[in-house]
Amino acid sequence: MALHPQVEASLAIRRRPPAEVLAADPSQRLRFARQAMEESNEAECGPAIPLPVVVDVDADGVPCRLYAARTGAPVLVYVHGGGWCYGSVETVDRLCRRIADRSGCAVLSVDYRLAPEHVYPAALEDVETVLRWIRKEGAGLGVDPTRLAIGGDSAGGQLATVAARRQRDALTPLDYQVLIYPAIDPMTASESYDEVGAYGLDRASMKLAWETFVPSPADRFSPDVAPLAAEDLTGMPPTLLITAEYDVLRDEGADYADALLAAGVPVVHVRYAGVNHGFARKLALFDAARAAADQIAVSLRAALTF
């Protein structure tokens, strides 16, 4: 499949670091990347769908944003991407609004702590804090936390599925998970890194992200970091897993879908053709992003409206 022309257009939107930033220390490069992502948000993601409820909440110390179109709705806890180092509730705001609008589910978006200021396991702890909080406080917020899914993109997909496995182990299993090009392999070993590393994400930047998030090499072999290191994936929630053809994370996402299937987990794995990493939140730039958001919404409605 050919590269979609919308990819080239999307790569031109975000400000690229000048030579002096590239030559600077990592903290300056990180500050630039964070700022560039936030600055380009409107151009990439488009206008906000209005919803009856969009409110910032404090989930036992973790800032979150709740989106809801009706009372008594099931809940998707959503974990944003950004290499564990950047991104925010703002960068996935438009995606979360569309999912809430189309699915009839409430979406609780997690503004977890970022590396390198807060390294592993801080982000995972924040996600687990939010899951405990919504189970406890959801009814008072007007949502139904007895029907609970988790989802995320890229680094957020990694956090989401690790949290889902830990919820299974704690005997509080989740009902569904949505993983959008999840980061699965800290070793960055798959062939897609060699095949499609020229479209906005490459092995060097992904290795840096993993090393920044998990500074201890020994920790990178833990199932709480590398989802495929888990001995047993049986009993994981039914899964929608989305990958992108021109994404270095494509193959590890497919490997994880295969491992879940082999463990008897119901999985729908969809590879979006012609698009690259990060497409799904860029609703203003990609036709495929709007299709993916609506596919997520339909799958949530089918999984949680029971």
Would you write up a description of this structure?
By secondary structure, the chain is α/β, with parallel strands linked by helices. The chain is 40% helix and 20% strand. The longest helix is centred in the middle third of the chain and has 20 residues. The radius of gyration is 18 Å and the shape is globular. The mean pLDDT is 97.
Explain the layout of strands and helices.
Elements: H1 5-11, H2 19-22, H3 26-39, H4 41-45, E1 53-59, E2 62-68, E3 73-79, H5 93-103, E4 106-110, H6 122-141, E5 143-153, H7 155-169, E6 176-180, H8 192-195, H9 203-213, E7 239-246, H10 250-262, E8 267-276, H11 287-304
Parallel strand pairs: 3-4, 3-5, 5-6, 6-7, 7-8
Antiparallel strand pairs: 1-2, 2-4
Helix pairs in contact: 5-11, 6-7
Strand order of the largest sheet: 1-2-4-3-5-6-7-8
Please write the string of helix (H) and strand (E) elements: HHHHEEEHEHEHEHHEHEH
Mean pLDDT: 97
Number of helices: 11
Helix fraction bin: 25-40%
C-alpha Rg (nearest Å):
18 Å
Strand content: 15-25%
Main beta-sheet strand count, sense and barrel state: 8 strands, mixed
Low-confidence stretches: none
Q: Specify the overall morphology.
A: globular
Tell me how many strands there are.
8
The structure class reads: alpha/beta
Measure the end-to-end span.
38 Å
